[in-house]
Amino acid sequence: MNGDKREELGVQPILEKLREFGGWPVLDGDKWAAEDTFKWWEWAYKMNNAGFGINSIVSVTIGADDKNSSWNVIGFDQASLGLSREYLIKGFEDKDVQHYYKFMVDTAVLLGAEREAAKSELKESLLFEISLANVNAPKEERRNASNLYNPTILKDVPTFEGLPPSWTEYVQTIFKNADKIKIDENEKVVLTNVEFFEKVSNLLQKTKPRVLANHLAWQASKSVLTYLNEAALKTKQSYDKALSGIQVSAPTWKRCVSVIGFNSLSGSFSLGLVAGSMYVRKFFNPEAKEAMLEMTSYIRKVFKEDILENLDWMDENTKQRASEKLDQMDQFIAYQDEFISKEKVDGLHKDIKVTKTDYLENTLNIIKFWRVFYYNRLREKIDPKSWLEHSDVSVVNAFYSGDANYIEFPAGILQGSFFNAKIPKYMNFGAIGSIIGHEITHGFDDKGKQRNGKG
User: Using an 8 Å Cβ cutoff, are 453 and 324 in contact?
Assistant: First the structure.
């Protein structure tokens, strides 16, 4: 909220980070001299240590093992893009891609680049990202869980030209701050898109290091504009308006509470647990939880007896299995008891470093804290009932988890036009009731049907 301090700092916080990574060529011009020594994975190490995203060329994540959802596993996937693949594959001249291009150029100019140089260099960077989008698999090819599950071990992950010479070393370096975890070459990993590695290798081999460095520095800069000064915010807002029609930026206080975790799906990498605890302790009415438990029980009963058992297109064996999955489907309403404990919540966050002077640094420190936290949980058995698995308490949304077969209705959605424990029940059935039914059916849609009642 300290606007004066943000204006004083200007764009220096991101410029300092870019210098730590190795500089943004479009800003440095002829002074950028890493053409012969640049390796994108070494940038990824530095970006990871600083709290930035590292998945702009190859994604490395941690998540539940699809074939054994009680345990986490490292996942390797295709690139995370700055603009959706569906836009980028339309090509450079597409109007929405042009909006993105202008955003790239405007951001570089804001940080000190000459506009004509930015246009020239970032066109090459954008053409690379378009090519990257084309080697990514489309969404429709990523609905079948079996096709996305290709387990191997680190030493056997493909190491084509242009990729890290050792994926074991790559992951070890990323995990180096996780004191509870030791990674070796026999670590299990799951490849989501096996073909991607050879395709991206071919692309990387014909791409100049300067273009790759411009791409990575752009992705880093883009991700933090909203933590800088008003000029940076206006640059981002101009892009949002052109692409999505969003007329004005949210006021500062709304952006701040969103970053903290209120009504934000970034809860697992923000202060979402704190936000949820504050919300349920200060504002949530316990009556709503009891009323929701009654509603979900009724809707599940109707779904089973009036829908599943009367389907004329489903054979009896399939009906039985669907019924069993419904019976096994867990539910999480409002919040877990731990959220009421200020001491427990504060204790979990005690090692986060917060300053009073740098908004960007605070945000990155929070991300770094959670990144190490989740790295350290790689070996821990997943408890779907743990409060740590449910950080989105203060979010106005609802969820179905295929990994653990449960529905979830956070405290945040049990208010306003969605739900009110004091109004006639038929009004709640028309509002939140339809959402309950919607989440239940996710367990049986084209993705849900691929998993059993245990995930």
Answer: yes
pLDDT (average), residues 157-175: 96
Q: Are residues 192 and 103 in the same domain?
A: yes
Residue 435's CB is within 10 A of a number of other CB atoms, namely 16
pLDDT tens profile 285-301:
888 899 999 999 999 99
Q: pTM to 2 decimals?
A: 0.92
Residue 455's pLDDT band, with cuts at 50, 70 and 90, is: confident
CATH of the domain at 127: 1.10.1380.10
Contact yes or no for 395/263 (Cβ under 8 A): yes
Residue 455 domain flag = no
* Token duo for residue 207: 């791409």
Beta bridge partners, 76, equal 60, 191
What is the reported pLDDT for 170?
Answer: 98
Per-residue model confidence (pLDDT) at position 90: 98
Judge residue 24's burial from the number of C-beta atoms within 10 Å of its C-beta, 0-12 exposed, 13-18 middle, 19 or more buried: buried
Q: Give me the pLDDT at residue 263, please.
A: 86
CA–CA separation, 68 and 2 (whole Å): 47
Residue 244 shares a structural domain with residue 333: no
**Is 154 in contact with 189 (CB distance < 8 Å)?**
yes
| pLDDT per position as a tens digit, 230-252 | 999 999 999 999 999 988 888 98
> Do the Cβ atoms of 90 and 96 come closer than 8 Å?
yes
- The DSSP secondary-structure symbol of 333 reads E
Residue range(s) defining the domain that contains residue 426: 272-450
CB within 8 A of 72, min separation 6: which ones? Answer: 62, 63, 64, 65, 377, 378, 379, 380, 382
Beta-bridge partner residues of 221: none
- Whether residue 220 contacts residue 52, with contact meaning beta carbons closer than 8 Å, is answered with yes
CATH number reported for the structural domain that contains residue 293 in this entry: 3.40.390.10
d(CA 390, CA 61): 19
- Helices of type H across 329-384: 342-348, 359-376
**Res. 421: pLDDT tops 80:** yes
